């Protein structure tokens, strides 16, 4: 089990320290890992969490796009479908598409907990699932986007992104918490004119249960 906090420093160092200590004390015998995210430039919060025993696990980039997405303009041999949700068997398949796992709020359990909040695009070729994307119907946040390694650099991800933009009411799209080590996805988003508007650290503190 993992718990998470999204920190904004304007609530004060003292209050944040007290809350963090209280949470750690109340849960330390019940969970294995305590997880949070902190904006990379928030040096005061970062110092506080490190003093509490948290360690940086990875760097996450948050992207934003304002405006439309250009049509790929290529021949499409695949088929797009729009299911009401991702089925359990499909979750098993798409995990193999990930270079790095999603952050906690974009993970399978978080998505399934509020499944009706999202629109889903899956791509099939010869009946096989080769790519997918998930977007918030209202906010335009893309929580997951991935393509089978064999079908990358063929326009599949571009087609998914374009389709997702049509499945949300928002004029602005965001891709929150992209692992900085995922070179392919970071390069793709920048190519599609997304810009990094904030960088975060994913931090963890481990307990013996």
Question: What does the model show?
Answer:
- This protein is of the alpha+beta class and 209 residues long.
- The chain has helices at residues 13-27, 43-51, 88-94, 108-113, 156-165, 183-191, and strands at 33-39, 55-66, 79-81, 118-125, 128-136, 141-147, 172-179, 195-206.
- Strand 4 and strand 5 (128-136) form a beta hairpin.
- The chain is globular and about 55 Å long.
- The chain starts with 12 loop residues before the first helix and ends with a strand.
- Mean pLDDT is 85; it is low at 1-14.
Distance between the termini: 11 Å
Q: The biggest beta sheet, please?
A: 8 strands, mixed
| SSE string | HEHEEHHEEEHEHE
Count of DSSP-assigned helices? 6
Rg computed from alpha carbons, rounded to a whole number of angstroms: 19 Å
Strand content range: 25-35%
Task: Give the overall average pLDDT.
Answer: 85
Question: What structural class is derived from the secondary structure elements?
Answer: alpha+beta
Overall 3D shape: globular
Portion in helices: 25-40%
Q: Spatial order of the strands in the main sheet?
A: 1-8-2-7-6-5-4-3
